[in-house]
Amino acid sequence: MKILKASEYPTSVIDLINCKSIEILSYNALLNMFFEFCYAESNFFKLNIEENKSFKVEEIISNNEKLQTQWAFENQIKFTRNNWFYDILFAQIEKFRPNVFFAHDRKCLNKEFIKKVRNSIPEIELIIAWDGVDLKDGNLYSTADVVLTPVEFITENYKKLGLKSYTLPFAFEKTINKKIKSTQLITDLSFVGSVFIGKGSHNKRREYLMELSRAGFKDFNLSGSCDVFDDILSKKTASLIKNEGLTGLWNAYQLKRISKGSLYGLDMYNKFACSKIVLNTHIDLAGNNAGNIRLFEATGVGSCLLTDYKENLTNYFKIDEEIVVFKNKGELIEKVNFLLKNEKIREKIAKAGQKKTIEHHNYNFRSKNLIEIININT
């Protein structure tokens, strides 16, 4: 069985890797640079699924114009400048002729495009979509046969919309630990992640980070929309002032000022591996549900994870044995100080958390789960 997975990368990651390739590289050489960087799911499904010799997986980064147009050039594919995304993607599907098209990039779900794919590629038996942020967009996702999500509550929301949906939690790729440069613990507490401003985004996260900064912890690598000051007249800035007043604007500015810049992929993993404690908080719209990718990235490299409490956390880890949780700002500071003062307890929790992730939350297991879903629906 052949699977083609089309993934979307953030523009910041695409620009970062593309800028490293000063000379013109072949498509495969440039693609491998991205995979070596180990951003998010990278090519981890391909590496693990293809251990089963019955499967062949092709991974592409569908929104990377430089990469995609290089593929088109090498394969003598004509495309229009204003429609390069769909022209090249269709040519890739047509060339590979997969049985399963995994549209991890939701832009692939365009109705006209999916109709063209289904009509032109008879080999396709299943189209899979992905929603990791609970868009609840039944119209968009109805173009797929199956919707995968990382947490149960998003799955249930799509089932309520009448769509077939399954939960496929995030995971950690075990081979990353072979690429870590150092595990010397030189940072007390670190946070790496986005800080988007707006309803349902990272408002609680900003509160927690500000509380930590007031307590003297400022090792934050932030990305997202704390850059409201780049456009002081934007709707985003106006909304922030309306909802949180000048205090909210000031706090956003403070976080922007102390941030050490964004970190992704191996750079992030190396940061975690050198941190005594890694902070994780979920996006506001998650409500009482845990399941973001940071849970597994931090524990996977052996860091002591301190995360916001959610009702379903015990589905993944044993609290106070494999991870540590907090329920409010006061408890956050209390737990940080406790873990820093009690090295043996912290190290025991970190080792137990890593063991759980390596043994139960790895991409080999998730790949088998994905194969099961495919087999059920083909």
Describe this structure in a few short sentences.
The chain is α/β, with parallel strands linked by helices and 378 residues long. It contains 15 helices and 11 strands. The chain has helices at 11-20, 27-37, 44-49, 65-74, 84-96, 111-120, 138-141, 152-160, 203-214, 235-258, 265-273, 294-300, 329-341, 343-360, 363-377; strands spanning 2-7, 56-61, 100-103, 126-130, 146-149, 165-167, 187-195, 220-224, 275-280, 304-308, 324-326.
What is this structure's SSE topology?
Layout: E1 2-7, H1 11-20, H2 27-37, H3 44-49, E2 56-61, H4 65-74, H5 84-96, E3 100-103, H6 111-120, E4 126-130, H7 138-141, E5 146-149, H8 152-160, E6 165-167, E7 187-195, H9 203-214, E8 220-224, H10 235-258, H11 265-273, E9 275-280, H12 294-300, E10 304-308, E11 324-326, H13 329-341, H14 343-360, H15 363-377
Parallel strand pairs: 1-2, 1-3, 3-4, 4-5, 5-6, 7-8, 7-9, 9-10, 10-11
In this structure, how is the largest beta sheet organized? 6 strands, parallel
CATH class of the largest domain: Alpha Beta
Oligomer: single chain
Question: How many structural domains can be distinguished in the coordinates?
Answer: 2
What would you call the shape? globular
CATH topology call of the largest domain: Rossmann fold
Secondary-structure arrangement, i.e. CATH architecture of the largest domain: 3-Layer(aba) Sandwich
Q: What is the helix fraction of residues, given as a range?
A: 40-55%
Q: Give the number of DSSP strands.
A: 11
Low-confidence runs (pLDDT<50, min 5 residues)?
Answer: none
Termini separation: 10 Å
CATH superfamily of the largest domain: Glycogen Phosphorylase B
Tell me the strand percentage band: 5-15%
Strand order of the largest sheet: 2-1-3-4-5-6
